[in-house]
Design brief:
The protein is an alpha+beta fold. It has eight helices and 39 strands. It has a domain of 128 residues: Double Stranded RNA Binding Domain (2-Layer Sandwich), CATH 3.30.160. 17% of the residues lie in helices and 33% in strands. The termini are close together.
């Protein structure tokens, strides 16, 4: 993605980085080297006095240096993983989650050289920072190097550690705490407890039966216990709380509970017609309640909160909204909302709609305080749904993300509850939009995670082989959202008008029909952003279509179920291939501020007459259908003091 006015955006991004950047100078202790006092006169007595003063001054300096060195080399001090401001906690209790200011403080502390950082008893004095060829190089940003064989495991927001390979790291300081004694499979199910004290991982890849799970103490790296596997069962879900490990098995209507400290079996809860597959079960942090789908009535799937001890249903979550794709007739009571061109029935009647949504849940998580529950469902289209603990539906919005592949780790809460991390995108609760998007290379295995309300942790495009921390520019994002909602002057955004232009090459059919199919689809897509199409506008959406011929295919009538060779007509048609680049240009002679390329191949199953023309139309229709998933920038301000939305982080 190309951002308007690159120089101005670089400055804004530099300001963002400076908020996380290293301290450029150091503070020096007021205690300097021993001072020699010179006396005039006095003869031998004066010399003896001077010598005595120098002797004790030098002895005092030596003692100070010895004391300092001893303090720095004390094993207890060196191995203490807790940050200086962390208060001791009772065994088994959860430490307070670090705040955003704690994160900034811990990051800043990494840039003080040993001995230069002021102590509590010192009074920092300003010093000048050397410049020129003798200036010291800027300290490196703290990070954790990863290779392709290492798996990164994060806890929920506020967890003070992460695990990379066999090393436990303190975050955000990026300091190694200990090494795990023993091995685990990097592609296995893994989990950190919310307080970061325990790490659990299996000895086999996900999807294989008979996995055995080891519990490690993240303070020492020593194993604390083992959860024995079952050769005939496959673990689909692993959830770790401070005191318990919960295992859900494939095609089993049971939830197995183990002591998280030792791995010994606690109990097995039989919950008929309940699903514990990956992504469809969540447990409160106190371990007292579980939420999962209820398939007792197959025609009316529900999402229910249950007491783990008794299996009793506490509350059933309200059904999701009914969504249907346009164009459809509007039944009574249904309204058209500007959310992806979908018809939304806010009444949310039970039945087929709930069945589709609840059966397609890919991720399910409680908020930091367990007061709310959120999920990602993919049917009839990707959406994020959030409920209160008493079952009230609070949010139900389509997810217009770049990556449409979701799994149980794709959803993470921000501690405040004001946003979610959905894969590589931040979904803002108030605006109902993606406001921040990280574009990483395809196949990146290390997920992003929420460190606190203002920071993400993970591998980012500028350093894809290292785990680093980045700050979210919330102030700038909120300012841009406010400008957008106030209809401030913009090059692109709600209330704006744009022109459509076409560049067609290698056209293999009628130009007017081609333009109509693509133009109608693009107009519908722009309506979603409250943008109209009108000739002669400054901002232009440019569609550049290139066509080519594919394979020569035989035409067969009837169903393929009749077997090879049946229904052959003796005719052939030519497959159609198309590549469409969509560009957003804010001035007639300017470079595009956003572009994206789609590709499509004609369908091989066609109703009606099969001709080269009808085959080609299916290719164009396939391109047009992809417009719905385009991650357009939905706001490009006219002024350079505001960010375009969503904010996109990608490689240079």
């Amino acid at each position: 993605m190309i951002i308007p006015d690159p120089a101005a955006f670089e400055q804004r991004r530099d300001r963002q980085r400076q908020r996380l950047g290293p301290a450029r100078g150091t503070s020096r202790s007021s205690a300097g080297p021993p001072k020699a006092l010179l006396f005039t006169g006095g003869g031998i007595v004066g010399l003896l006095l001077v010598g005595t003063i120098l002797f004790f001054a030098l002895r005092g300096g030596d003692r100070t240096e010895d004391s300092t060195a001893s303090t720095e080399s004390t094993p207890e001090s060196a191995s203490d993983p807790s940050p200086p401001s962390t208060a001791p906690t009772a065994p088994g209790s959860r430490p307070a989650a670090p705040s955003s200011s704690d994160t900034r403080r811990l990051l800043d502390e990494q840039f003080f050289s040993p001995g230069a950082k002021p102590t509590d008893s010192d009074t920092p004095t300003p010093t000048s920072t050397p410049s020129g060829p003798d200036a010291a190089p800027e300290p490196a940003v703290p990070k954790i190097a990863l290779d392709s064989r290492q798996a990164a495991t994060y806890g929920p927001a506020g967890c003070p550690v992460m695990v990379a390979g066999d090393t436990v790291w303190e975050i955000p300081a990026m300091k190694p705490r200990c090494q795990l004694q023993g091995e685990y499979e990097s592609r296995s199910l893994r989990a950190l407890s919310p307080d970061g004290r325990l790490f659990v991982a299996g000895d086999k890849s996900k999807g294989l039966s008979g996995s055995e799970f080891t519990i490690w103490d993240t303070q020492s790296g020593q194993p604390r216990g083992t959860i024995s596997g079952n050769a005939s069962r496959t673990v689909e879900r692993l959830i770790l709380t401070t005191n318990h490990a919960f295992l859900g098995f494939r095609s089993q209507e049971q939830l197995s509970i183990y002591n998280a400290q030792t791995g010994s079996p606690d109990r097995v809860i039989d919950l008929p017609q309940r699903s514990f597959d990956a992504g469809r079960v969540a447990v409160t942090k106190d371990g007292f309640h579980v939420v999962t789908t209820d398939d007792t009535d197959r025609s009316n799937t529900k999402l229910a909160l249950l007491k783990i001890a008794s299996g009793e249903t506490v509350v059933t979550m309200r059904s999701p909204k009914t969504m249907a794709q346009r164009p459809v007739d509007l039944p009574p009571g249904m309204v058209l909302v500007d959310r992806g061109g979908w018809i939304v029935d806010d009444a949310g009647p039970p039945g087929a709609a709930a069945q589709k949504a609840f059966s397609s849940i890919e991720a399910l998580r409680f908020s930091a305080d367990d007061s709310e529950l959120a999920c990602i469902a993919t049917q009839p289209r990707p959406r994020l749904i959030c409920w209160s603990r008493d079952g009230k539906r609070l949010v139900d919005e389509p997810l217009l993300t770049t990556n449409r592949s979701y799994h149980e780790e794709s959803l993470r809460w921000f501690p405040s509850g004001n946003a979610w991390l959905v894969g590589d995108d931040i979904f803002d609760r108030d605006s109902g939009r993606i406001v921040y998007s990280v574009r990483r290379r395809l196949g990146t295995a290390t997920p992003l995670a929420v460190l606190d309300d203002d920071h993400l942790i993970g591998t980012f495009p500028d350093d894809p082989d290292s785990v680093t921390v980045t700050e979210i520019p919330w102030d700038d994002i909120r300012a841009s959202l406010a400008k957008m909602q106030a209809k401030a002057p913009a090059r692109f955004g709600p209330g704006n008008k744009v022109s459509l232009t076409f560049e067609l090459s290698g056209l293999r059919g009628g130009q007017s029909d081609t333009v109509k199919i693509l133009a109608d689809a693009m107009k519908r897509r722009l309506e979603r952003e409250e943008v109209e199409v009108e000739k002669g506008r400054e901002t232009v959406v440019r569609l550049k279509l290139s066509e080519s011929a594919g394979e020569t295919l035989p035409v067969r009538e009837g169903s393929s179920a009749r077997g090879p060779g049946s229904g052959m007509t003796g005719r052939t048609v030519t497959e159609a291939k198309g590549s469409l680049t969509i560009e957003l240009v804010v001035s007639a002679a300017g470079e595009p501020v956003w572009s994206h390329t789609l590709s499509a191949v004609s369908s091989r199953s066609i109703r009606g007459d099969v001709t080269n023309a009808s085959v080609r139309v299916t290719m164009l229709q396939s391109l047009a259908r992809q417009f719905d998933g385009l991650a357009f920038p939905y706001f490009i301000p006219r002024s350079d003091d505001a960010l375009a939305l969503p904010v996109v982080v990608e490689a240079e």
